[in-house]
Amino acid sequence: MSETTRHAAGLAPNPAPADLPMSGIRVLDCATFIAAPFAASILGEFGAEVIKVEQPGEGDPFRKFGTPAARDTLAWLSEGRNKKSVTLNLRDPKGAEIFRQLIAKADVLCENFRPGTLEKWGLGWEELKKINPRLVMLRVSGYGQDGPYRDRPGFARIAHAFGGLTYLAGLPGELPVTPGSTSLADYMSGLYGAIGVLLALRQRDKTGAGQYIDMALYESVFRALDELAPAFFKIGKLREPEGTGTTNACPHGHFRCGDGRFVAIACTSDKMFERLAQVMGRPELAAEDMFRTTRQRLARHKEVDGLVAAWMHSMSRDEVMAACVKGEVPCGPINSIADIAEDPHFAARGNLLRLVDELAGEVVIPNVLPRLSDTPGRVASLGPALGADNDAIYGDLLGLSAEERATLKGAKVI
Fold it and tell me: In terms of domains, do 13 and 139 share one?
């Protein structure tokens, strides 16, 4: 994307990679799908050199996940951003040896094999830190590197269930649903993984020694469940599915407007409800003998929600939003991606980034987060073709000759 196009889209100019916070850091990403690779992507957005290490002839299975594009998938083009791709068979002793050479020149390794797999290949933490004592290693797995379930396979859907989130998702008494039908646990674990890497690099600055980060998918989910644990262990409260509302505030949920579209509303204080009552043209609802306090509203929550629902249903979503915004009532549209594509705030914040791939054409992806004022991250490229950087990495970085590379390729090592 040219700078002219970036400015037209409301985006900050791309800084030079050398100016970014993670410049000078080399990351090896030998993981698959989302969690650990997402951590590597975040580091890459802020200047790290990320080398994706993939199985020859196959690559990361995420290349085949989601909507097909002219090459790979749209999911891969988005999530493989800013990475270089090399192919390497870690199961082959020659491949393992090349990997050790890469480790010697790396700062960070991101992996998500089932615990014990890298150790089986002679590439576990104890071996790798001998090669590079400064190495920071992110290890993401379903259940972590220890514990009785360590050997079980893990995926985001399983992490949502095991970590306690799925139990809360859905309507009371009905089949639990997948929160958002997304790989939420993968992305959350990737975020925590990136934080772990940054903390370990900071510690390395002080001591010169690396360390590994042990991240279980379910743990990132469990960490985000507010008072679930303290309320259970303190007073025995077993939180159940609450549908579109909550037992802590009222009205606080989702409502259908007259045009069939939906909004979310959050009245988390008595002052917020008083404002809503004014907006509804029913100020008497906030009287002392009605619903002034949260306790009063929760005790008659079905009645309160019914009154709000009837008011919402009398207007279109745009009319509801206009009234709530004017009255300073916390209310937001429940957006589809089609709504997001047309929303002026998403545009003004530059949340959607347009890049062009030679084969796939223009691809719209989520922009970089977080936003730094002086050294914002950037997306320089979409997900690479499989093995696109073999010559550059193995030739320029490791010094393997063209003849050596050809021999390794013929043996399916690379």
Answer: yes
Q: What is the pLDDT of residues 65-111, one digit of tens each?
A: 999 999 999 999 999 999 999 999 999 999 999 999 999 999 999 99
How many folded domains does the chain comprise? 2
Q: Taking CA 155 as the corner, what is the angle to CA 153 and CA 160, rounded to the nearest 5 degrees?
A: 120
Last residue of a domain, one of 278, 302, 336: 336
pTM: 0.91
Angle at 98 between CA 35 and CA 61, to 5 degrees: 30
**Residue 230 domain-assigned (yes or no):** no
Both 211 and 299 in one domain: the answer is no
Residues 140-150 have pLDDT tens digits of 999 999 999 99
d(CA 209, CA 364): 40
Q: Domain holding 132: CATH number?
A: 3.40.50.10540
The closest of 381, 382, 405 to 392, measured between CA atoms, is 405
Quickly tell me which residue has 């799925």 as its tokens.
166
For 57, 287, 388, 406, 410, the CA distances from 403, given in Å and listed in that order, are 20, 85, 18, 5, 11
Residue-range definition of the domain harbouring residue 57: 3-224+349-410
Question: Which positions are annotated as active-site residues?
Answer: 186
Asked if residue 96 is part of any domain, the answer here is yes
> Residue 246 domain-assigned?
no
Tell me how far apart the 2 most distant CA atoms of the chain are, in Å. 87
**Which run of H or E residues covers position 327?**
none
> Strand runs (DSSP E) across 267-360, as ranges?
331-333, 352-357
- Looking at residue 254, what DSSP letter applies? E
Contact 363, 357 (CB under 8 A): yes
Tell whether 244 is covered by a domain: no
> Rounded to the nearest 10 degrees, what angle do helices 317-326 and 270-279 cross at?
120
Helix (H) / strand (E) containing 262: strand 262-266
Q: In what order do the strands lie in the sheet with 108-111?
A: 83-87, 49-54, 26-29, 108-111, 136-141, 212-216
pLDDT band per the 50, 70, 90 thresholds, residue 15: low
